[in-house]
Write a structure and sequence with these properties.
Blueprint lengths: L1 E3 L9 E10 L3 H8 L7 E4 L8 E4 L10 E4 L4 E7 L3 E7 L4 E7 L1 H5 L2 H13 L7 E4 L9 E2 L1 H8 L9 E5 L2 E4 L1 H12 L7 E3 L20 E9 L1
Parallel strand pairs: 3-6, 4-5, 9-13
Antiparallel strand pairs: 1-2, 2-14, 5-8, 6-14, 7-8, 7-9, 10-12, 11-12
The structure holds zinc ion.
Zinc ion binds next to loops.
Length: 228
C-alpha cells in the first residue's frame, strides 16, 4: 500500500509519500528499490527514539537520537519509520525547505512538531503562512487505547489536554494525538487548515499499514520526502 501526498502534488520538485507495511529486515533493500528511479539520492534514516530532538542535514551525526530532520538540500530522502505514531512531512515551497517528523505520544507531549516548524523559520527564514503539511497514517482516536498513567502524564499540569481523551472504561481512555498536534499547528502556530493535509487512515483499522498494537511481526511504515 502506497499513499501519495496530495498537498505537494503541484510542486514538481518534491517526491513524498507514505508506504505501508515493510519488514525491518529488508527495509534497506526496499528503500533502495522504492527510490531506485532517483540515482544519486541519499537516504536518511534517523535513530528514532521518541525524543524531541530536531536535527539538520547536513550537520547531524548518525549516532545521535533524533525524531525530526530538516534540510534544504536536493536529492536527500528524509525518512520516518512508524508503527502507530504519526509521520508528518513538511514542505515550504517558497524557500525549498523540507522536514520529516516522528510524533508518538512522547514527541507530541514535548511538541516536536511545533519545534520543527520554529526551527525551519529560525534557520531558513521559512514563513509559517506558506509551509505545507502532510500528516500520514497513524493510530487514530478510534483505536489509540491508553491507561490512567498516560492520562495523568498529559493532564496533570494542563487541564486542556482532557479534551483529547475519551474515557471508555474505568482505566481505559482513547487518546487523540493527531488532534493535539493539529491544535499546536492551528492554535499555537496560526497555521491555516488549508495548509494541512490529513491522510485519513488509521493504522490499527487498516491492515495494509503496520500497527504494533495490532500486529505481532516486526515491520514499519515508511514516510519519506525529498527535494529533487
Ligand atoms: Zn482506528
Amino acid at each position: 500500500m502506497f499513499i501519495n501526498t496530495e498537498i505537494f502534488k503541484k510542486y514538481k520538485n518534491i517526491i513524498a509519500g507514505f508506504s505501508g507495511k515493510t519488514d525491518l529486515k529488508t527495509m534497506d533493500r526496499y528503500q533502495e528499490r522504492l527510490f531506485s528511479g532517483g540515482k544519486g539520492f541519499k537516504i536518511i534514516n534517523l535513530k528514532q527514539a521518541h525524543t524531541d530532538n530536531v536535527v539538520f542535514y547536513p550537520g547531524y551525526s548518525k549516532d545521535i537520537e533524533a525524531d525530526a530532520i530538516i534540510t534544504n538540500q536536493k536529492k536527500v530522502i528524509l525518512t520516518i519509520r512508524t508503527a502507530d505514531c504519526i509521520p508528518i512531512l513538511i514542505f515550504d515551497p517558497s524557500n525549498n525547505v523540507i522536514a520529516a517528523v516522528h510524533a508518538g505520544w512522547r514527541g507530541t507531549k514535548s511538541k516536536i512538531l511545533k519545534k520543527t516548524v520554529e526551527l525551519m523559520c529560525e534557520k531558513y527564514g521559512c514563513d509559517k503562512e506558506k509551509i505545507l503539511f502532510s500528516i500520514g497514517p497513524s493510530n487514530r482516536k478510534c483505536c489509540y487505547d491508553v491507561k490512567k498513567d498516560l492520562y495523568d502524564i498529559f493532564t496533570i499540569d494542563n487541564e486542556n489536554y482532557k479534551d483529547f481523551f475519551s474515557q471508555i472504561k474505568d482505566d481505559l481512555w482513547r487518546l487523540d494525538i493527531l488532534g493535539i498536534n493539529l491544535k499546536y499547528l492551528i492554535d499555537e502556530l496560526n497555521i491555516s487548515e488549508k495548509q494541512i493535509e490529513i491522510v485519513d487512515i488509521c493504522t490499527f483499522c487498516t491492515p495494509y499499514f503496520f500497527s504494533s498494537r495490532r500486529d505481532k511481526s516486526d515491520m514499519r511504515n515508511i514516510a519519506f520526502i525529498s527535494l529533487q
